[in-house]
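quick one before i forget lol
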Amino acid sequence: MAWLLFAAAGIAVLGGCRQDMQNQPKFIPLRSSEFYSDRRSARYPVPGTVPRLEDATADQAQLDPNSYYLTGKHGNVYGNELPFDANTPDKLKDVLARGQERYNIYCTPCHSLVGDGNGMIVQRGFKRPPSYHVQRLRNAPLGYFYDVISNGYGSMPDYGSQVQPADRWKIAAYIRALQLSQNAQESDVANPAELSKPEETGIRTPDTSLQPPPPSPQPEKGVKR
């Protein structure tokens, strides 16, 4: 009889340890956790994870929310180079073609096909954005345009949910090419083949050296759209 009592007691104890469905051991998205020192329930991918991002390299930095790829900044300074390879005429052509396609879809209603800020909804009363061809924006680095597309600025909403990071960079590259096309001199088209080279468009790509990138012109503070 003793062993029956012992078995019954064990069953009773085990019964009290069951996990009810309404009390599931999981983390709700964006909810904090006391288990980790940074109190984030969502964890970074393990080292070596290959990002599933268009045109991204298998670099862990691409998944870091503070990386250049996702911010357009080196620390607090806007960068002026693309974060992926476009070092050949064919690759640059593909980048600009995709950038033009996305620009025509998302940007022309306000900024127009030529980037002068006189898009169709502006003609119908919406606040006019600045022309891309003013000197301030001609001097602005690519990272600045990426940041504005990602986070919005002034009366412009953000397009972070509509446009993927790689496409934001391609739009920024197309804006630079658009600026070049609308401000070209006769001497610039004397040898059209030269304009197909990345260095001739003003669009820089990643430097493979260990040297930090040169400082880029920064947009003036306090200038509203």
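fyi Residues 60-201 form a domain with the Cytochrome Bc1 Complex; Chain D, domain 2 fold (CATH 1.10.760.10).
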